[in-house]
């Protein structure tokens, strides 16, 4: 990567989103990363078969999200009493008055946003990997997927589970349902997926879509 | 080193593409283009204020209401953490305190400091301030832990009259506070950090 003065063909340039430094975009060798010289923000990161890995992980996340909603999540037993809850029971446990809003937010943050984001990524990346022209509105779809990124909080919820488990462990006996393990796995997949995803490469690939 | 702005260009923060200064929207990804979003500081402080206003009742009102054989016990965020520590689970108490007190408070301070220093740009420390901004953006979501813990406990502990746990009003104000401060950090244009920096002349042609 090098800096140069007054550009003609603007498509060959890339600007750092965090400090505005201008570079001519050069694809680093496979597995390499292009990093901003001034603020060290990663601008481009290529990985071998990144696209296919993102697709595979997204498909896994999709299946796990849907399955996790329909299977038992946690089960509790204490002196003759028992209670079994699903992921949706947990997300919608704020029921009185305005607290319902928290239920709505929780369902969005741990189920809907991750689900929508996964669908959008598959919609955008699958055609690129199949060497087909991008689907309609691929740009809007990818833009939305990027905007939603901070609002998918599966890994935060996983740590929340750990805290809750310790809190009740001396009062009651807890059993993990299949949905709990599915959720744990999908949280890890979401984190790995975002590490593989190279935004710049995808934008370059869908540049000329209508 | 030359910036997009010095070359008469405006950069898209969403996809990295550059356009001639004055272009309203990015032709590649459709995001709105602003060379330096000076108005962003107003949005930052508006969300910041909203977040701070919500954070006060979040600490005063109960987060969890525990009913055991008809008697009600209300626990605030800090009260709940102290209760856990008393049981000997210092690690969990620390996680709760870090997620619900330390992270939000340091976020309020960090955003206010960043907005202030971007408003009056001066040379030096830009890289350090960018790191602070990135840390603030990364860490914000983790404050939601306490809301999720309340959700899990309220769903699980429902043993009719013997014991039941319900969320308190602080769950709403705390969740709002986290969301507002996330929006505040997201509104900040980190390119403002660099404008006070003197730029070295390019060594190569």
How would you portray this structure in words?
With 210 residues, chain A is an alpha+beta fold. Chain A has two domains: 10-45; 50-205, Butyryl-CoA Dehydrogenase, subunit A, domain 3, CATH 1.20.140. Helix content of chain A is 52%, strand content 14%. Chain A has seven helices and seven strands. Chain A is elongated, with a radius of gyration of 21 Å. Chain A starts with 12 loop residues before the first strand and ends in a 5-residue tail after the last helix. Residues 1-7 of chain A have low confidence and may be disordered. Chain B is an alpha+beta fold and 205 residues long. Chain B has two domains: 1-35; 37-196, Butyryl-CoA Dehydrogenase, subunit A, domain 3. Chain B is built from six helices and six strands. Chain B has helices spanning 40-60, 77-86, 90-119, 126-139, 145-156, 170-187; strands spanning 9-11, 18-20, 64-68, 71-75, 158-159, 163-167. In chain B, helix 3 (90-119) runs parallel beside helix 6 (170-187). Chain B starts with 8 loop residues before the first strand and ends in an 18-residue tail after the last helix. Residues 201-205 of chain B have low confidence and may be disordered. At the A-B interface, strand 1, strand 5, strand 6, helix 2 and helix 3 of A face strand 2, helix 3, helix 4, helix 5 and strand 5 of B.
What's the CATH architecture of the largest domain in chain B? Up-down Bundle
Determine the strand fraction of chain B and express it as a percent band. Answer: 5-15%
Average residue pLDDT of chain B: 87
Return the CATH topology of the largest domain in chain B: Butyryl-CoA Dehydrogenase, subunit A, domain 3
Radius of gyration of chain A: 21 Å
Number of strands of chain B: 6
Pattern of helices and strands of chain B: EEHEEHHHHEEH
For the record, the count of structural domains of chain B works out to 2
Percent of residues in helices of chain B comes to 40-55%
- In CATH's first tier, which class of the largest domain in chain B applies? Mainly Alpha
Terminal Cα span of chain B = 11 Å
The CATH architecture of the largest domain in chain A can be named as Up-down Bundle
Give the CA-based shape of chain B: elongated
Order of helices and strands of chain A: EEEEHEEHHHHEHH
Decide which structural class fits the backbone of chain B: alpha+beta
Uncertain stretches of 5 or more adjacent residues of chain A: 1-7
Oligomer: heterodimer
Which structural class do you get from the secondary structure elements of chain A? alpha+beta
- What is the approximate shape of chain A? elongated
């Amino acid at each position: 990567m090098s800096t140069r003065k007054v550009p003609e063909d603007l498509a060959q340039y890339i600007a750092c989103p965090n400090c505005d430094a201008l570079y001519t975009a050069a694809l680093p060798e496979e597995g390499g990363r292009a990093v901003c010289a001034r603020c060290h923000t990663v601008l481009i990161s290529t990985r071998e078969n990144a696209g296919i890995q993102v697709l595979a992980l997204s498909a896994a996340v999709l299946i796990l999200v849907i399955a996790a909603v329909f299977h038992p999540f946690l089960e509790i037993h204490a002196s003759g009493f028992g209670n079994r809850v699903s992921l949706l029971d947990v997300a919608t446990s704020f029921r009185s008055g305005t607290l319902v809003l928290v239920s709505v937010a929780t369902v969005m943050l741990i189920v809907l946003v991750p689900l929508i984001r996964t669908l959008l990524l598959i919609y955008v990346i699958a055609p690129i990997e199949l060497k087909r022209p991008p689907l309609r509105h691929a740009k809007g779809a990818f833009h939305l997927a990027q905007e939603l990124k901070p609002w998918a909080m599966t890994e935060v919820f996983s740590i929340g589970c750990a805290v809750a488990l310790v809190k009740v462990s001396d009062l009651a006996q807890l059993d993990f349902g299949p949905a709990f393990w599915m959720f744990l796995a999908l949280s890890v997949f979401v984190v790995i997926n975002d590490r593989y995803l190279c935004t710049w490469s995808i934008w370059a690939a869908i540049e000329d879509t209508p | 080193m030359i910036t997009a702005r010095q070359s008469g260009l405006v950069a898209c923060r969403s996809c990295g593409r550059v356009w001639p200064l004055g272009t309203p929207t990015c032709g590649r990804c459709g995001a709105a283009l602003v060379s330096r979003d000076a108005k962003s500081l107003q949005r930052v402080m508006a969300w910041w204020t909203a977040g701070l206003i919500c954070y006060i009742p979040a600490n005063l009102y109960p987060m969890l209401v525990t009913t055991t054989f008809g008697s009600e016990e209300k626990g605030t965020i800090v009260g709940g953490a102290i209760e856990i520590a008393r049981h000997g689970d210092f690690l969990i108490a620390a996680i709760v305190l870090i997620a619900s007190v330390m992270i939000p408070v340091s976020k309020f301070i960090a955003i206010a400091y960043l907005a202030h220093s971007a408003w009056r740009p001066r040379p030096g420390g830009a890289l350090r301030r960018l790191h602070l901004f990135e840390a603030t953006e990364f860490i914000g979501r983790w404050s939601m832990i306490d809301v999720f813990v309340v959700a899990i406990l309220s769903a699980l502990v429902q043993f009719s009259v013997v014991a039941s746990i319900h969320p308190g009003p602080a769950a709403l104000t705390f969740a709002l506070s986290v969301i507002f401060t996330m929006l505040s950090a997201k509104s900040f244009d980190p390119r403002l950090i660099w404008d006070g920096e003197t730029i070295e002349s390019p060594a190569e042609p």
